Amino acid sequence: MNRLTYLPVFNKLTKSQQNTLENSAFVRKFGKGEFLHNGAQHCTGLFLVLSGQLRAFTISDDGREITMYRLFERDICLFSASCMMNSIQFDITITAEKDTEVLVIPSEVYKSIMEVSAPLANYTNEVMASRFSDVMWLIDQVMWKSFDKRLAGFLLNEANIEGTDTLKLTHETIGNHLGSPREVVTRMLKYFVNEGLISLSRGTIRILNRDGLKKIINQ
User: Fold this and answer.
1) Is this structure's pTM higher than 0.85?
2) pLDDT tens digits, residue range 38-53?
């Protein structure tokens, strides 16, 4: 199977452009926790996720992390090739949240085709707009949403991603996703326990009352 067909516009490219992509793209595998890309100065290439799950996050000057977005099967990451986009510098780090297989398209190859292919250029702009929308949503959450709402939403989203109400998550991991100190996460989780919304054990959070968490979000 030609994995490049995961690109929605692949069949709209010329045969020559398709061949160029096929001859330059290569598959890489990353283990859980492994870094794929680290910082704006590291122009790795575009990642097309074949399987697994990636996390894109940024790190503050004081070392705190916050998740910007996740990438799943058939998603493409452009910020790992930010060097090909003029005037856009995104200091972003990407790690594998699960064992992951990606198709890497070298930045210079993708850019050379994008400059002459309207379908690929339009698709790239759509992906960029979607990612910036994710970032703006995150800014809105951080600035205007109380932490209990953000945490409740995060737990429900994780449960939907994993397909289970029993989540293998540490307080530190949650803090990294939400950009909050571990101590703040711990206090709010204990509040959720007291309200009968969740139960806690070492490295595990079990959701007991989904409706209760949804009620917090909608308050």
Assistant:
1) no
2) 765 566 788 999 999 9
